[in-house]
Amino acid sequence: MSDSGASRLRRQLESGGFEARLYVKQLSQQSDGDRDLQEHRQRIQALAEETAQNLKRNVYQNYRQFIETAREISYLESEMYQLSHLLTEQKSSLESIPLTLLPAAAAAGAAAASGGEEGGGGVGGRDHLRGQAGFFPSPGGASRDSSGPGEEGKQRTLTTLLEKVEGCRHLLETPGQYLVYNGDLVEYEADHMAQLQRVHGFLMNDCLLVATWLPQRRGMYRYNALYPLDGLAVVNVKDNPPMKDMFKLLMFPESRIFQAENAKIKREWLEVLEETKRALSEKRRRGQEEAAAPRGPPQVTSKAGNPFEDEDDGEPAVPEAEEEKVDLSVEWIQELPEDLDVCIAQRDFEGAVDLLDKLNRYLEDKPSPPPVKELRARVDERVRQLTEVLVFELSPDRSLRGGPKATRRAVSQLIRLGQCTKACELFLRNRAAAVHTAIRQLRIEGATLLYIHKLCHVFFTSLLETAREFETDFAGTDSGCYSAFVVWARSAMGMFVDAFSKQVFDSKESLSTAAECVKVAKEHCQQLGDIGLDLTFIIHALLVKDIQGALHSYKEIIIEATKHRNSEEMWRRMNLMTPEALGKLKEEMKSCGVGNFEQYTGDDCWVNLSYTVVAFTKQTMGFLEEALKLYFPELHMVLLESLVEIILVAVQHVDYSLRCEQDPEKKAFIRQNASFLYETVLPVVEKRFEEGVGKPAKQLQDLRNASRLIRVNPESTTSVV
């Protein structure tokens, strides 16, 4: 396609008034035939592929710029937080100047603040909110008294409010936790902005608790969720009437939208959330700096048994053991939680796990003071988020394309995180869904054998790839994972046998077709032995019932056909009419293992045997050949008993005819057929059975030895055994 034609076609498709149905209609009217339509279709397909390549190229070009921009935004955000903190400190310094100039006024203000706390209202530099929303003194506030009754008052307030919330008693066990702000909110659905429920928010100095209303119990709530402030982001939602006074809370990987009572309360929620987050971050930063700062050895009294003894009288205490310092002021440790968030958001799973390994190596064999425990708690939250993302990557809901290798990235990172068992379970579940989908997508062809070839290729190729990928991913891990794989392989084989049996046995295919299909399945199954996986015994165990049913069904067909021919037996020689037909019969008998068939042929095209005996021989040997293709040890007695039943029908008919026939010529002819049956056919059956099974069949030998030819006195009509 020329560049001008391609550009013209592209402009036509990109035009604003383009209508696909009208375009196809016009194209059909203008085309001379199917060839023109095929060429036009190829041109459109080429244009679509070109467009896709351009789009992919643009995405790749912009992706790195997007990542760099996201990092810059993150850096700017941290700088803005620092700038805001500096402004807050400057404001506090300016406000403290009048208090030093007017000590009396400052004392009066402090008294007023103390009175406000005892009255149950929070001041902290803010007006008291009436109704359902109220402020409590924020940490580090200008009028906050951090000693004595102030702390007890905050704890009492938190206890009183949280007693109204069912299911959150564990919150009261956290030392130093107090209530900052609380109020009524209405939650909305994020996608369609539909109202969900009324909630009440309790903002503590380190977390946000959301509780739902209990309509039957006025003033009582039920615990709904708890979000640590260090993993919480607050976003202002622009008013879009009638949706207004809303803000969004982002907690990876979910988000929730709430509506305040009015614009003022919304603004206060946003301000107090940001202030509390900054205060918490500052508190933790100071704690890490204090932990990293050098400290002198702890002093202990020489006489620990008497705490009232004057310290000046004793000698300087000797430290029992100097605690090793843990330096958490390193830049990469300070930025570790944020770096983990960036790695998870950018799906850089390897980078996230590398950071975790680096931290574990750094903290190895080091003590765990409170700052280290606090850091580990923040990191553990990111580990949980990373694990959830990796688990989602391996879920069957994700795309199953790409084969087992597509799961290697998530599996390897889960193993590095110490989640080997979970990785094994998710990997095998993912591959089971992939195998099931591949089998379902196979088209059922008209020819059963063709479908079975495709089914075996798809299934055993998937099984082989899964086994090799499993060995690659889980090499060196707990051997219990290999046991799980064997159990999974058996389950997958059951899935395969279900599809196999429905197509082969449930559709009542002939025994020869069933034998060929089973042979194909066995050959594919034996290929798994190259990697040390032998599932032949499993496929035997799963197919034994269906094969038994097929053998029994075909045995009944042969017996019925033999009885029908016996009922119409006239005991006449066969006349094949043409030498070609006779030659064909000789070849058939030779393929059945009857090598001395020449002695039973007469002049011209005559055969000195009955049609019934010849047909029985071909049918019995055909049944034996097909059954041996299906043979495995569990079917030994079933096959042997079926052969004995089939042979007995012919033997009993010959014996009965010898006893009942009075015509000497026919009796001699019957004796000749009996001789062929006992001395030629039965030994061939025994030999072929022994070759196929690997051991002789005593039941067949007993049947031949017990069947003696009946000698008839030519001058008498009495049969003598």
From TrEMBL:
<feature type="region of interest" description="Disordered">
    <location>
        <begin position="281"/>
        <end position="324"/>
    </location>
</feature>
<dbReference type="InterPro" id="IPR001849">
    <property type="entry name" value="PH_domain"/>
</dbReference>
<dbReference type="InterPro" id="IPR011993">
    <property type="entry name" value="PH-like_dom_sf"/>
</dbReference>
<keyword id="KW-0653">Protein transport</keyword>
<dbReference type="InterPro" id="IPR033961">
    <property type="entry name" value="Exo84"/>
</dbReference>
<dbReference type="InterPro" id="IPR016159">
    <property type="entry name" value="Cullin_repeat-like_dom_sf"/>
</dbReference>
<dbReference type="InterPro" id="IPR032403">
    <property type="entry name" value="Exo84_C"/>
</dbReference>
<comment type="similarity">
    <text>Belongs to the EXO84 family.</text>
</comment>
<comment type="function">
    <text>Component of the exocyst complex involved in the docking of exocytic vesicles with fusion sites on the plasma membrane.</text>
</comment>
<keyword id="KW-0813">Transport</keyword>
<dbReference type="InterPro" id="IPR042560">
    <property type="entry name" value="Exo84_C_2"/>
</dbReference>
<dbReference type="InterPro" id="IPR042561">
    <property type="entry name" value="Exo84_C_1"/>
</dbReference>
<feature type="region of interest" description="Disordered">
    <location>
        <begin position="112"/>
        <end position="155"/>
    </location>
</feature>
<keyword id="KW-0268">Exocytosis</keyword>
<dbReference type="Pfam" id="PF16528">
    <property type="entry name" value="Exo84_C"/>
</dbReference>
<protein>
    <recommendedName>
        <fullName>Exocyst complex component 8</fullName>
    </recommendedName>
</protein>
<feature type="compositionally biased region" description="Acidic residues">
    <location>
        <begin position="308"/>
        <end position="324"/>
    </location>
</feature>
<feature type="domain" description="PH">
    <location>
        <begin position="178"/>
        <end position="278"/>
    </location>
</feature>
<dbReference type="Pfam" id="PF08700">
    <property type="entry name" value="VPS51_Exo84_N"/>
</dbReference>
